[in-house]
Design goal:
The protein is α+β, with helices and mostly antiparallel strands and 588 residues long. Strands 3, 6, 7, 8, 9, 10, 12 and 13 form an eight-stranded antiparallel beta sheet that branches. A seven-stranded mixed beta sheet has the order 5-4-11-14-15-2-16.
């Protein structure tokens, strides 16, 4: 990345202040780390931005950046944590959005609603939250610099760290796909945002862009209580029994029961999020049966309970931008409240209460997926970022069926032979263990256009695909690089981009088989592979097989996360520390 200055640049005039210019030498790397000139410029800008003249005689084109600091370690609390789960993340995105909330029998809802200048307390057995599009007195600019777009939080977080190292303060958002934004309270004016974007473009960055909207109206939530309508920005809802029933849309028969409290609050996207504030162990009752299943061997359920607890506590930073911690879908863990709880899962949660999986006194990155395809993946096989010592390729079988050290799956011949194996693995016989999906060139082209458009990439303008080829695999067989030859040139897809870019594959554990369909030209490709999901860490399918063989939850977890320990939560356990990964890698 690089900043940009004009030759003979003139100073921008700011009322009651002189302007500070930065030299080309100071800006050479696109990051001026708190030098005196930058601090002076920022101080002047902050003090005078409300008085900046409507037109400037000329503008010195520089980039103002602030250097980021590493995320601080988060230590574990002594008592049971209470989590904030975004169960409805984008309420108000559609003008027809409706939520119904009601108390259980014999109870009432207590509603505390407020705006910036008023508060109101109400009680009722049921309420509705409805969306109304509110016209604004005048058009309002909504704008942010989107630095990059990603399929996963893991890659977004790694990229955010890289931006910070280059001197740009950022925040991670999820308007739909994960994105890294230039921090809005730093780049808080059109001028600063354009300074930043111009510097990136001069350096050659074609993916960063301004997401600009001129708003004529915004969604407003109407609270409907006993036929009366109230307009509030934040709404807290509690009950005496700590139980609330919720349904989306106008179908109040599809009620879902949640424990704890509810809060409707604004988010970073101009809509609202319904947040469930719930104790950790109660939260797990709504996760474990929906993740592992309701009728599976007990030790597999215990293993799921331990890693679900670990995953939740280690990922509390995911939605910091919106002031909650976790979502309720597969971008975090599937959470359905108290609807669908089962005695088997409740038993496993109670038996493992407070127990987490650790490595070197820190919570592990407790990633897991449905089906590995016979071999787990290293962290860096799938996402950008530093490997975890306990997330390394493991053949997913109780017995020896493949020597990974002697027959690396990075070699294409070995890989295709491995995919041809059907028996001996923990997941053998499951529908997603092995699969074959065909896709025409027309469909592949549409997939890629959609993918690149979502990423604001110039490759979205491609019209034709000539050839595709896997050019690099990891030792676990995952695709690291896939080359696509198009009418615009050859584009390289990396790691989890591959699964995002195409509709056919269920994982990145596959090879391509060209198809002609009886003609002399290429019709498309068969994606031939195995597994469902990223394949890192525990296989939910494989763990059930190991449990049937009599393995304990501790044995299952040690198999998928070698070198880890099961421990009770305590103050000495760190939830998350960014620096630990580089330390672990250096020590290997």
């Amino acid at each position: 990345m690089e900043t940009h200055t004009q030759n003979n640049a003139k100073h921008a005039k700011v009322e009651d202040a002189c302007c500070v210019s930065l030299s080309n030498r100071q800006l050479a790397f696109g990051c001026v780390s708190y030098n005196s000139h930058l601090l002076a410029f920022l101080a002047l800008w902050k003090r005078n931005q409300g008085k900046v003249r409507s037109h400037l005689t000329s503008v010195c084109v520089t980039t103002v950046v602030l250097c980021g600091t590493a995320t601080a370690a988060i230590a574990a609390p002594a008592s049971e944590p209470e989590l904030k789960i975004g169960i409805v993340q984008r309420f108000g995105a559609k003008p027809t959005d409706v939520l119904s909330l009601q108390a259980t029998a014999g109870d009432r809802l207590t509603i505390q609603a407020k705006t910036q200048d008023k508060e109101k307390k109400l009680q009722a057995t049921n309420i509705k939250l409805e969306t109304v599009m509110q016209p604004l007195p005048k058009a309002t600019l909504s704008e942010r610099v989107v630095l990059s777009t990603h399929r996963s939080f893991e890659t977004a977080e790694h990229t955010a760290k890289q931006w910070r190292q280059m001197g740009i303060e950022v925040e991670i958002a999820q308007p739909d796909r994960w994105q890294v934004w230039a921090k809005r309270d730093i780049y808080n004016s059109p001028l600063l945002r354009r300074f930043l974007l111009l510097s990136l473009q001069v350096k050659g960055n074609k993916n960063a862009y301004l997401d600009t909207q001129v708003l004529q109206q915004v969604p407003q939530v109407n609270l409907v209580v006993d036929g009366q309508r109230y307009a509030y920005q934040e709404i807290d809802i509690t009950t005496n029994k700590n139980l609330i029933q919720i349904s989306e849309g106008n179908n109040q028969r599809d009620l879902r029961l949640y424990a704890g409290r509810m809060r409707l609050q604004p988010n970073a996207y101009g809509t609202y999020t319904l947040v469930n504030e719930v104790p950790l162990e109660t939260y797990l009752r709504g996760v474990v049966p929906h993740e592992i299943g309701a009728n599976v061997p007990y030790s597999a359920v215990e293993a799921q309970a331990i890693i679900a607890r670990t995953y939740a506590l280690r990922n509390l930073r995911r939605f910091a931008i919106d002031d909650y911690e976790l979502c309720a879908d597969t971008q975090c863990q599937v959470y359905r409240g108290l609807s669908g709880t089962v005695p088997l899962a409740d038993r496993a949660i109670a038996a493992t209460k407070g127990k987490v999986l650790t490595y070197d006194n820190q919570l592990v990155d407790a990633l897991y997926s449905s089906t590995t395809g016979g071999v787990t993946a290293a962290f860096s096989d799938v996402w950008q970022g530093t490997d975890r010592p306990y997330l390394q390729p493991v053949i997913d079988a109780a017995d020896s069926v493949w020597n990974l050290s002697g027959q690396s799956l990075a070699e294409e011949k070995n890989f295709q032979r491995f995919i041809g194996l059907q028996q001996g693995f923990n997941e053998a016989g499951w529908s997603m263990f092995r699969w074959r999906k065909e896709s025409s060139l027309a469909q592949i082209t549409q997939d890629l256009q959609r993918f690149f458009k979502a990423n604001n990439s110039p490759w979205a303008n491609l019209k034709q695909i000539y050839q595709m080829q896997v050019t690099e695999r990891s030792p676990s067989g995952r695709i690291l690089k896939l080359a696509v030859q198009t009418d615009l040139g050859t584009v390289i897809l990396e790691k989890d981009e591959v699964r995002s870019a195409f509709s056919a594959p269920r994982s990145t554990l596959f090879y391509l088989q060209p198809l002609n369909k009886g003609t002399n030209s290429l019709w498309g490709y068969a994606f031939v592979g195995g597994g469902f999901g990223h394949g890192v860490g525990l296989s939910q399918t494989g763990s059930q097989r190991l449990a049937k063989l009599g393995w304990s939850s501790a044995q299952i977890l040690n198999f998928y996360y070698p070198g880890t320990q099961i421990e009770p939560l305590s103050d000495r356990i760190t939830f998350y520390s960014e620096e630990s990964f580089s330390t672990a890698t250096t020590a290997k």
